[in-house]
Sequence to fold (231 residues):
Amino acid sequence: MTMTTQVHTASTVITNAVEKDRKEIIRMMKDIFYKTDPSSMYTKVSEVPKISLYMQNVSVESLEQDLSFVAKEKITDQKIVGVAINAVRPAKLKLKLDDPSLKLVQSKRERTLLQLWNFISSMPPNSEKFFDNDDDIFEIRYLVVDPKYRNQGIATALVNRSRKEAATKGYKYMRIDCTSHFTARIASSMGFDCIFQMAYEDYKNPSGEQIFHEIIFPHTKILIYAGKTCS
Fold:
């Protein structure tokens, strides 16, 4: 178990995510991320009345690695208003785009979103140019902030705290898959390099057909940022 550490912003305190936070983190994913993230909006998952248990579990499965952080409202120190769900990617991990488990997902929209995420996770194809093959990679999988608390530096603080954790744990590299322009802007401002980008309009299904047609500015691209945890 990681020792709980706290970092303060003007309105929140950032601390390690623990098991008792799981229920509230799932609520944030259902009510905020799956409703407002561009990848969810473009796949129409944002319009699904009830997110499946499978999707809920996918979003929090890495919490047990004890690497994630939450931002809690300062006054009560209880309400979670932001979360960075982090994980470690094994150096030798080879992701399969045709994950057979996706056949168990009944919702076509959810399946399309998971296929998109698998594609993003498998990029760039020449990752050895950016990472040492023997080094595991610390990654921010999901970055979510309550809309009422945005523009207060909470997301940036969560990324900073995650980066420090990665360095403390001895991970040399950190990766952020950005499905939102705002997440990409944070990664860029912190000195990470863009190692992959693709316009949402260029993403195609296995049959070569364009999937996304209604793109909302400024969320026009999928971007992957990466860099060393210590400068």
In short: The radius of gyration is 17 Å. The mean pLDDT is 88. The CA atoms of residues 187 and 225 lie 6 Å apart.
